[in-house]
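Revision sheet: structure tokens.
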Amino acid sequence: MNNEKIVVIDDDTTLLELLSDHLTAAGYQAEIASDSVTGLQLAKQGDPSLVILDVMMPEMDGWEVCARLRQVSSVPIIMLTAKDEELDKLRGFHLGVDDYVTKPFSFAELVARVGAILARSAPENGANKRLASGSLVIDFENRRVTVSDKIVDLTPTEYRLLETLASAPGRAIATESLLKNVWGPEYAGELKHVKHYIWSLRKKIESDLGNPHHILTERGFGYRFE
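Predicted:
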């Protein structure tokens, strides 16, 4: 049994019940809300391990729920949407969304993605390292990142990406390898995930986005941590 609590927010009650059944069968504790206001309260107060959030909802859409939740929590978020447009995905990534799933979707695939995100959110056993690069300090043991002694609020995916790059300083890592190591094999081919999260990560740790010092691009290959 996983025992992680998953909050699902969607105004489609049939989908809610089906997804709840699949999550429960996979060993998760599912808590559902059919409106955005109730769902936001559940996500804020219930200390979930992950939130699954629909974009198109009355009263308050998923973007607004995500933005409000990100003000108080770095809990992993999967957005559900009927749209498959690049601008929508960019908006989600910029809000700190961990994944973006287009309806209709396979329940088995969604549950697999939940597991992949929770796996990269979990601390690794035996980690006892600390790395400093200028004003940037990465405490691997406590999964804490600071810039100029100020804590940087990273989502689990952002942290896992930084951890993967910083674990091999000075070595270029192929985009495909980052995708596999950070997101998992079920994300094969979705290379734009890496590009979007590199941008988001740089925005939080670099002093100059136009001239990054920590995460450098190896054109046509991947990225390296300097």
